[in-house]
Design a protein that fits this description.
Helix content is 54%, strand content 7%. The protein is α+β, with helices and mostly antiparallel strands. The protein has a domain of 270 residues: Cytochrome p450 (Orthogonal Bundle). The chain is globular and about 60 Å long. The structure holds protoporphyrin IX containing FE. Protoporphyrin IX containing FE (HEM) binds next to helix 12 and helix 16. It comes from Actinomadura vinacea. This is Cytochrome P450.
Length: 431
């Protein structure tokens, strides 16, 4: 289903889902999960209007802004315990994302916020600008670039290496670890044992590697990267963390960042380039990053990489109490908070189908919301903004006609290739 017109498609999803679910609940769920990838805008528009809180045998889907926000704000009721069984065994222990309002979450999130401060943004932008420009220069002669493999992934693994201080043995291995673990954590809702086993194997390799480099990093005095900063901060004393806590939090830098950043850049660049007038306006805005950023976060709203955030309901809870959609969510329910839908809810985002680069940032949920909101938001947002800024500054940047220009995903939701044209169009069939 295509892009700019997606939201104009007629409804009928709810009726089709219910008819299929009555025949066979699994058939209904298969329909829903397909639409979540390809027809999410009309599906969510219909659900917001007709069934804002949809109960299915496998999960409850929440689609209005106010209710998504209620789910994400109330960490004591809508918990992250569902992540723990997949992520903790892979990295060998608990981490802030798998622990609700515990001392561990409070302490480690607080410290990691200090480790990833907004003051790092200029330095992160400079690192990204140099890396992106070199990648774009190398591709320019060929008149095209695979934005995923030649730009987004190399920029992100360079940020891991030089800013986080976690280069791994090589960029390919770093990317392989991250992909295997995040596939299990975010995509494997059905609990496929092979995906889980691949994540455990990758996690073991990664944690052995990180423990192996700890002493070396201590001996070199830490350096200017986040890993070094962390090692200097948690010296024995009040803040002493053992090696496991340090290694797990460094692993969290890679896992929170890489796939989210690559996926988000892929989605938003496509949305920018689908709208020539928006593309032109974004190019004109490049001298002022604040104005430019309005374009990219709005483009991401048109196709967020992360469509839903999952939680498990800890006790029976009346969601949307006092409204006509008031619903009891029973303890144990898997709740999918549809952030992609919330950002299209006209009660929070006026005229959601209009592309407006000057929207206020508060209804944006790209970096989560509430107690688990992204700890890496400042450097993470800077990586996305600067990479895309360097890209749109290239003359002749354009989508290629399908199949060349399609976003290719070899296995799951993570993009593997996305070819873009650069320079003067000189091939038949190019857009
Ligand atoms: C420096 C880069 C990044 C780091 C180190 C990082 C790390 C993390 C961590 C550790 C969490 C869990 C926080 C908690 O449990 O309290 C988190 C949450 C989150 N991050 Fe990031 N992240 C980065 C970049 C990004 C990017 C680029 C995106 C997407 C555009 C993103 C989207 C999110 C979202 C949506 C959540 C909320 C998850 C939830 O509530 O279940 N992050 N991030």
């Amino acid at each position: 289903m295509g892009d700019v017109q997606q939201h104009l498609t007629a409804g009928g999803h709810l009726d089709r889902y219910e008819a299929a679910a009555e025949r066979d609940p699994l058939e209904g769920l298969a329909l829903l999960s397909g639409w979540l990838r390809t027809e999410w805008r009309p599906l969510f528009a219909e659900l917001r209007a007709r069934r804002p809180i949809l109960h299915t045998p496998a999960f409850t889907l929440v689609t209005r802004f106010q209710d998504v926000s209620e789910v994400l704000r109330n960490g004591d009721i809508f918990t992250v315990r569902g992540y723990a069984s997949r992520l903790d065994p892979a990295i060998g222990g608990p981490v802030m994302l798998t622990r609700d309002g515990t001392p561990l979450n409070w302490r480690e999130k607080g410290l990691m916020q200090v480790m990833l401060p907004p003051e790092d943004v200029p330095r992160v932008r400079a690192l990204v600008a140099g890396t992106a420009d070199r990648a774009l220069d190398a591709a320019a002669a060929g008149g095209r670039i695979d934005a995923v493999g030649e730009l987004f992934r190399p920029v992100c693994t360079t940020v891991c290496a030089e800013y986080f201080g976690f280069p791994g043995p090589d960029p390919g291995t770093l990317a392989r670890w991250s992909r295997a673990i995040m596939t299990d954590v975010t995509v494997n809702l059905a609990g496929d044992p092979a995906i889980h086993a691949a994540s455990l194997a990758a996690g073991r390799e990664m944690m052995d590697h990180l423990r192996g480099v700890l002493d070396e990093r201590r001996a070199d005095g830490g350096g200017r990267d986040v890993f070094g900063r962390l090692l200097r901060t948690v010296l024995p004393g009040e803040l002493a963390w053992d090696d496991d806590r340090i290694a797990i939090n460094v692993a969290g830098l890679l896992l929170g960042f890489l796939e989210n950043a690559v996926g988000s850049m892929t989605h938003l660049v496509r949305q920018l380039l689908l709208r020539p007038e928006v593309h032109r306006a974004a190019v004109l805005a490049t001298p002022d990053t604040a104005v430019f950023d309005g374009h990219i976060w709005e483009a991401l709203r048109f196709d967020p990489f992360l469509k839903v955030i999952s939680r498990v309901c800890a006790r029976d809870h009346v969601l949307a109490a006092g409204t006509p959609r008031e619903t009891v969510v029973p303890a144990g329910t898997l709740v999918l908070a549809a952030v992609a839908s919330a950002m299209w809810d006209e009660s929070a985002v006026p005229d959601p189908d209009q592309f407006r680069a000057d929207r206020p940032p508060h209804p944006q949920l790209h970096f989560g919301h509430g107690p688990h909101a992204c700890v890496g938001v400042h450097p993470g947002a800077a990586v996305i903004s600067e990479t895309v800024r360097r890209l749109v500054l290239r003359p002749g940047l354009r989508l290629l006609d399908p199949p060349d220009g399609a976003v290719v995903r070899d296995r799951d939701v993570f993009p593997d290739r996305f070819w873009l044209g650069l320079g003067a169009p000189d091939r038949d069939g190019e857009a």
